[in-house]
Write a structure and sequence with these properties.
This protein is an alpha+beta fold. α1 runs antiparallel to α5. The chain is about 20% helix and about 40% strand. It has 9 helices and 33 strands. β8 and β9 form a beta hairpin. The protein has a 26-stranded antiparallel beta sheet that branches. It has a two-stranded antiparallel sheet with strand order 1-2. It has a two-stranded antiparallel ribbon with strand order 19-30.
Length: about 800
């Protein structure tokens, strides 16, 4: 909520009106007066007469001039002529009139209108000259045969001045059409400006009406999909053994929104979907509400009831990019975008919650120290709230309610202080999250068992504080530092505080910003018992029952990402909060920056440079290691043992290297094209090393390299094509659950992974290739058709994905 939104709207509309009028004025004036006067035109000879009379600088008529330049020269000569007349009038009284009627005062001279839109026309009638002048202008010095005398010379000068004055008249007539045209264009611009102002006023009333008066509006998104096929086997010839096909499917999401008055607003998301099959089939047509929100926004307070999105810090509440790429080719990015829309409504890194959120956002305009204060708190209901997977996005009902998620965050920032050419500003942020399960909610009255994740109530508490200092060096350049310290407490049994487990996490460092670019250095230290249940993998659908044929899941497979977020349906015990991940893909940060048992440092780079940010270089590089073994209670519960320990290497603290860079370059701005011509590549390298590397038969550190390149070209404004190719290499030795490449972080008081057969060493040496093509047809800015084909092959997994998509936004 921003209390000052209305005060910013009016000046913005006025500014837009001014810019439109200025652009229109420039266009109209340029059309008439920027034309060059042809060589040999009589205009140049008349300008020469003005030069001869001393009203213009010598050489003015010798260069090519536009109509505007000629008009400006005429105006300059007119001003010079007026100065001469005034000077002569000040020299003294004119002589008495004579009987010689051949000498008469010169006629009054009317100056031409000023040739510029918006400048008032000026008419000057000069005073009579101090000396009588002849009415007939001599065309050459031969007009007088009498030797020149001082008086005669003075008379000749006056005659030339009179001739110049008459030339001014003739030039005004020559450009009368152009000047009238300019004035006409000026009136047209004025009329257009007045019309723009009127339209902007009407638009402003309509915009205000949306939020200040009862109203209803709606927009949405519709998509229809074609066919795809997946198969597993050693070659495409085996595709018939395990085919999986998807036929036509479509949906349309309607998002109506409205207001009761300017303080009460609402919106909803309603979906209709169909499988495009026979109407006699059951369940092929669905109509349901996915989201519903009511907002109450008085000037000093805001609240949201129903569905809302929330995002905190990577150490408390975090959502990973499902593919974890710095650069994504078109067809892969589109699939990733679709999956995130289905799961998170494209609001990542925010999570979808349902419940109540309250807050305020206050500006301190008169304070010399404080600039802004923002505070908000939320309450989310688990097991009776929003769950995208199990209930199709609908409300559970009050009878299943059991658990809560509470959250709060706040920030306070100072004014930006200016010290010479530099500036300084500070910000302090705070975050808190608590996941709570009431007493007796899991198997009430059953005996407490330390190794059983289904007994007794538990609770997670997380809090963090994050100060930031920013120093500006002028323009868009500056530097600063940010640091976050977080603390977690896990309460395994609310009735026994001796079972509480606590730990801390720290992340922060300096940064440097310039233009649209930023470089950040981070130091990371996350304790072995730091438990952040809201930090999850990008592949939490991986299960040991289906290890994907040796567990070789990979980004090229494009699995369904986070749709079964556990905390939207349940709060598990600590032993179950961390889901399985693939060591060949996510060994360094399987749960994001909040991955436990990590310490080290890294650098994040986000460079945007050249014209229209044509060159983009996002990159990350981290070097971390485990703090200790991954310890759990042993089978007799008399001590601790490494859950992933193996004979011969009982202690193998891992070291990790993570490099991910994705540069891209758009050539279009440099070849004067509006359509894109972009080429990019993503290189993702990850290595895990430990004492396991030296075991007999080991293949060395576990290494995963993924290189993915793509190109996108706009053929026409309505047609784009793109292509990509990638290769993945993974090799080395590690230990995985039941001998697969899967692993998960273990909780100290849950040794179920240990007693079920535990971790076993594995060797892997394989590769996977991906390729794809895509074409896009844009009918208008809101309606497009995409055709994507993507295939992954290698190892024992072959994935062929084909899709024809029609998308419309309204």
């Amino acid at each position: 909520m921003n209390m000052f939104g209305d005060s910013l709207m009016k000046p913005a509309i006025k500014t837009l009106t001014f810019l439109l009028a200025a652009v229109a004025s420039t266009a109209f004036a340029a059309a008439a007066v920027n034309l060059v006067v042809p060589a040999g035109d009589v205009t140049y000879s008349e300008l020469a007469q003005l030069e001869k009379a001393g009203l213009l600088a010598q050489g003015t008529s010798e260069k090519s001039m536009t109509r505007m330049e000629v008009a400006q020269a005429v105006l300059k000569a007119q001003r010079k002529y007026r100065e001469i007349v005034v000077a002569q009038a000040d020299a003294g009284l004119p002589p008495p009139p004579t009987d010689d009627m051949s000498l008469l005062p010169p006629p009054s001279v009317e100056a031409p209108s000023v040739p510029a839109a918006g400048v008032q026309e000026i008419t000057v009638v000069p005073a009579a000259p101090a000396v009588p002048a002849v009415t007939t202008m001599p065309s050459s010095p031969a007009v007088s045969s009498v030797p020149a005398s001082p008086a005669a010379t003075k008379t000749d000068e006056q005659a030339e001045l009179i001739q110049a004055a008459q030339n001014l008249h003739s030039l005004q007539e020559a450009y009368d059409y152009e000047l009238k045209s300019i004035k006409g264009n000026e009136k047209s611009v004025g009329d257009r400006s007045a019309k723009v102002e009127e339209e902007q006023f009407v638009l402003m009333k309509r915009l205000n009406g949306i939020v200040e008066y009862p109203s209803v509006s709606w927009h949405g998104l519709g998509r229809a999909y074609g066919w795809s096929q997946q198969y597993y086997g050693d070659s495409p010839a085996l595709s018939a053994l395990r085919p999986s096909s998807r036929q036509f499917y479509g949906f349309i999401d309607f998002e109506p929104m409205g207001s009761v008055d300017k303080n009460v607003r609402w919106n909803a998301l309603i979906r209709y979907s169909t499988l495009f099959q026979s109407n006699s089939s059951v369940g092929i047509d669905l109509l349901y509400a996915r989201r519903a929100t009511v907002e109450f926004n008085p000037p000093w307070f805001s609240s949201t009831i129903g569905d809302f999105e929330e995002s905190y810090t990577p150490l408390t509440l975090w959502n990973r990019n499902s593919l974890d790429l710095k650069y994504s080719p078109e067809m892969i990015a589109r699939q990733d975008d679709y999956q995130k829309y289905e799961s998170l409504l494209n609001d990542e890194p925010k999570w979808p919650f349902r419940g109540l959120r309250v807050g305020t956002d206050v500006l301190f305009q008169d304070s010399p120290v404080i600039d802004r204060l923002k505070v908000s708190a939320m309450a989310h209901m688990i097991r009776s709230g929003f769950n995208e997977t199990t209930s199709g996005g609908t409300y559970y009902g009050p009878t299943l309610f059991s658990d809560w998620v509470f959250g709060a965050k706040g920030s306070i920032s100072t004014k930006r202080w200016y010290l010479g050419g530099a500036s300084l500003q500070g910000t302090l942020e705070g975050y808190g999250v608590m996941l709570d399960e009431p007493l007796y909610s899991n198997q009430p009255y059953s005996p407490y068992a330390p190794l059983n994740p289904d007994t007794w109530a538990h609770q997670y508490q997380l809090a963090s504080v994050k100060p930031t200092v920013d120093v500006g060096l002028g323009g868009d350049t500056g530097f600063g530092a940010s640091w976050e310290g977080a603390f977690s407490i896990y309460v395994d049994d609310k009735r026994d505080s001796s079972k509480n487990v606590s730990d801390y996490a720290v992340m922060g460092g300096p940064y440097f910003r310039f233009g649209h670019s930023r470089v950040t250095a981070n130091v990371l230290d996350v304790g072995p018992n730091y438990l952040s249940p809201l930090a999850q993998t990008r592949q939490d659908n991986i299960t040991t029952a289906n290890p994907a044929f040796n567990g070789l899941y990979g980004p090229g497979y494009i699995p369904t990402p986070l749709r079964s977020q556990f905390f939207l349906s349940d709060v598990p015990r600590a032993g179950n909060i961390f889901s399985f991940y693939d060591r060949t893909q996510d060994s360094t940060f399987p749960y994001g920056m909040a991955s436990p048992n990590r310490t080290g440092f890294g650098v994040d780079v986000d460079v945007k440079t050249l014209e229209k940010d044509a060159l983009k270089i996002p990159a990350s590089a981290y070097f971390v290691k485990e703090i200790s073994d991954n310890l759990v209670a042993n089978v007799p519960a008399t001590g601790n043992v490494a859950v992933d320990g193996v004979p011969g290497a009982p202690t193998h603290i891992r070291s990790f290297t993570y490099i991910n860079v994705g540069p891209s370059f758009d050539l279009a701005p440099y070849i004067q094209r509006e359509e894109p011509l972009e080429v990019g590549v993503n290189v993702r390298y990850e290595q895990t090393s430990s004492a396991l590397d030296s075991l007999p038969g080991a293949m060395g550190p576990l290494t995963s390299t993924w290189i993915l390149g793509g190109i996108k070209a706009g053929i026409f404004s309505w047609w784009e094509v793109s292509a990509s190719f990638g290769t993945q290499q993974f090799s080395g030795t590690e230990v995985g659950y039941l001998g697969t490449t899967l692993a998960r972080y273990a909780y100290q008081y849950d040794n179920s992974d240990l007693v079920a057969g535990g971790y076993q060493p594995f060797n892997v040496d394989g590769s996977r290739q991906t390729g794809g093509v895509s074409t896009t047809f844009k009918f208008n800015r809101n309606s497009s058709v995409y055709f994507d084909y993507n295939k992954s092959w290698g190892s024992t997994l072959n994935n062929q994905f084909m899709e024809l998509t029609y998308e419309i936004e309204f």
